[in-house]
Write a structure and sequence with these properties.
CATH class of one domain: Mainly Alpha
Strand order of the largest sheet: 8-7-6-5-9
CATH architecture of one domain: Orthogonal Bundle
Shape: globular
CATH superfamily of one domain: Hypothetical protein af1432
Strand content: 5-15%
Number of strands: 9
Length: 451
Amino acid sequence: MEKGDCSHTTHLSIMATPLRNIDVELLKIGMYVSELDRPWLETPFLFQGFYIRSEKDIQELQRYCNTVEIDVEQSDASLQATLTRIPGKDDRREGMPISDQRLSLWQRILSLFGGKKVGGNKAKLKKQPSAGEYYTDTVSTKDELAVAKSIHADSLRQLMNVLNSIRQGATVAMPELEVVAGSMTDSVLRNGTAMALLARMMEKDEYTSSHSLTSSIWALVFGRHLGLDRESLEVVGLGGLLLDVGKTKLPEELLHKTGELTDAERNHIQNHVQLGLEIIREAENVDQRVVDMVATHHERFDGSGYPRGWQGNQIPVFGRIGGIVDSYSAMTSKRSYAPAMSSYDAMREFTSLSDKHFQAEMVQQFIQAVGIFPTGTLVELNTGEVGVVLKEHHSTRLQPEIAVILDAEKKAVPEFKVFDLRNKEGQAPTVWIERGVNPGEYDLDPRKYFL
């Protein structure tokens, strides 16, 4: 059915249906969009699952879509009764199988001429994978870790060489960085944990280089979770490497200043975005998504970012990814002006910034991608013991498998005690995680338990 073709006689169900597929011209603020009629990467909406918050959201949906699926139960209560009465694309006609109702007129005509059956009870529409279901690990973390260590070391060395060359006036060596992004993409696709584990463990000898590499790794981990295709993953990985390339043109003493910045110094540092764009534009055939990612990774969802003060869907998808991974990498790294935060505390910070600095749906998906207590992080239990997370369970993220390495008096245990925090069915938990332990606390180095 073509957009706007609502001339047929409709038969509305008296009972409320959980989902309503309606014309975009009928959208209202407060409705919950659960699905689009086209791939989400073709639109500025990152997820098939978001509230319509403004007229601008409606205009964007009308620009890109013909119909959208509305979840009645998740929409504002004041709209639920109205939603059951709106003539939608899923209204049932007498005698037509439910699975045929969402087929276009052209598809139904084709099915009448003996072509491939596209409707009816025999047809089964392929379920669209949700975030986190697009890829599965093809090798174990242990096996990939050996390969990832070599890739990681080579990538850091190559990146440092490129950044040092830029400092000395050379043009950015894009082919070398593309090789780095491609190698890391291969590793992340084989296993979603190994490279992320290395990002948490790596030395912070040269902040700009290490921050750029970890930003790229988190962008790849996030992109894998979102289901980006391989080509798009390489692009987002390359963008992560280049987020802070403009800082190579700033004075070292300014980047390493420990005290509060003056307004002039802050403006100077913020200029790294423009400096980075100038560096990138000197190279040839750079994907526009990389340019967009670098240009907008400091824009914020509420318009409080820089350099343009863009907000909401003005910020491109890759720019929104860049903003989150850049912030997460910085939060969990030791900087000249702030200590490193635990992953748990960083995720709490992101939650508090939902729909302020960052889109709420994106924050939720990033937390799912990275984890609250991911493998390699240190945690303190309610018993006072300290452990390192060995394995995170996606269904029970607050109850990972851990190895206790310090007893309640914070003394090293002679032999690691490995156990799973998941509750046995019907039993109340007796041991749980009290808090995340900040990197370096208790003089613990998680690397020696993995690397």
